[in-house]
Amino acid sequence: MAAIIEVEDLRKTYPGGVEAVRGIGFRVEEGEVFGFLGPNGAGKSTTIMMLTTLLRPTAGTLRVAGLDPIAHPARVRAEIGYVSQDLAVDDSLTGRENLRLQGAFYHLAPAEARRRSDELLDLVGLSDRADHRVETYSGGMRKRLDIACGLMHRPRLLFLDEPTLGLDIQTRRQIWAYVGRMKEEFGMTLFLTTHYMEEADALCDRVAIIDRGEVRAIGRPAELKAGIGGDVVSLRLPEVNGASRAPSILQGLEPVRTVQAVDGILQAVVDDGDGALPLIVQALSAQGITPASIAVKKPSLDDVYLAHTGRELREESGSREESWQARVRLRRIRR
Ligand SMILES: Nc1ncnc2c1ncn2[C@@H]1O[C@H](COP(=O)(O)OP(=O)(O)OP(=O)(O)O)[C@@H](O)[C@H]1O
């Protein structure tokens, strides 16, 4: 397979000295769905902006569709689409008008723009609301239209920055289905950022975990999960005297590989969950600690993220969704 994105030792330091991206490298193959996972401020948007010609790197090399975005920004832009976190659609126009306007930006002939907008309205399930003004759309409908706008010029490579942020699970699943269709029907390469691990797992052929401007892990979700190994035993402990010693008690047990405490829950990675469980319970009860609940599960991408960054991504989702909702509200007020 040929690489459609090649990045080597890419860096961005903003004026004022913020090192947003600190020497990252990765390749995205043509036709892949590639996910960039990371918390607020990890450097995801900065990386996307450099890949999409919107920001100049401080150092490093990058090629997008075989071209250097700094030397050939217009040629790169013709090959890519970019759906940012901020909705780009115009509320005062209808869905169909927004798409035609997008077609005009890319100098499509009117008949071709009509044909493509009909096709895309169908793809994102908006045909029956196409002639209603966008201000009457729900958040999910706006996002779907936004994605359709990003597809009008049939890019080879589509960047989606948090495509499902703030949307309910049903709408999120619809968007996943459209992403799948774009890949299948148009052979498009998709580069998306997300903080929903379930989404990354369901959609992405490969993911990179980025934290504080560095890539911590990269691979297929199944490989990354297998890399954690075995099972994860989660224990909720009562707040009794001695519970704080639980991590070191578990760490001393032979089948336990690693132990992390998150939000009062202890997570122990073990080779074989069923075999390790009695030993864990026995060791804790010998110290007078009885867990309030215990669960054994296969590692998820959340566990991969936790293992590589030392914290959970989930804890930041709430604030991120709130800030997105606030941005949508502001847009409506400003009009
Ligand atoms: N224009 C700027 N000037 C100075 N610092 C910036 C600028 N834009 C971003 N940063 C900083 O660079 C770092 C990376 O930001 P970036 O927006 O790339 O992160 P992110 O992973 O996309 O996070 P989010 O999901 O919140 O958008 C952060 O510390 C941020 O505050």
TrEMBL record:
One GO CC annotation: plasma membrane
Subcellular locations according to the entry: Cell membrane
InterPro entries from the UniProt entry: AAA+_ATPase, ABC_transporter-like_ATP-bd, ABC_transporter-like_CS, DrrA, DrrA1/2-like_C, P-loop_NTPase
Claim: ATP-binding is one of the keywords in the record: yes
SUPFAM superfamilies: P-loop containing nucleoside triphosphate hydrolases
GO biological process, one term: daunorubicin transport
Domain ABC transporter: 5-237
GO molecular function: ATP binding; ATP hydrolysis activity
NCBIfam families, alphabetized: drrA
PANTHER family, sorted: LINEARMYCIN RESISTANCE ATP-BINDING PROTEIN LNRL (PTHR43582:SF2)
Keyword vocabulary terms for this entry: ATP-binding, Nucleotide-binding, Transport
SMART domains: AAA
Protein family: Belongs to the ABC transporter superfamily. Drug exporter-1 (DrugE1) (TC 3.A.1.105) family.
Main location: membrane
Coiled-coil ranges per UniProt: none
Membrane topology recorded in Swiss-Prot or TrEMBL: Peripheral membrane protein
Protein name: ABC transporter ATP-binding protein
